[in-house]
Design a protein that fits this description.
Blueprint (H helix, E strand, L loop, with lengths): L1 E4 L3 E4 L3 E6 L10 H9 L7 E8 L4 E8 L5 E4 L1
Antiparallel strand pairs: 1-2, 3-4, 4-5, 5-6
Amino acid sequence: MRIACPHCGPRDRREFSPRGAALARPGPKAAPEDWDAYIHQRDNPAGITREHWYHIPCGTWLTVTRDTVTHVVEATE
């Protein structure tokens, strides 16, 4: 799997570290149940997902849209 870093160009997946789904965080006044759901109660869908990835060599955080079944990267931002 290759991921396009905005600073380094297309790189091998081994240069990146996945950090989880790109979900909207609950607000500062959110109920404890909302934080529990955000941290612990996540779906694990098959198909297109948005995830946060960290590019280790240059220290860039990316949002990667990829298919979890085929591992095809649709987009990086």
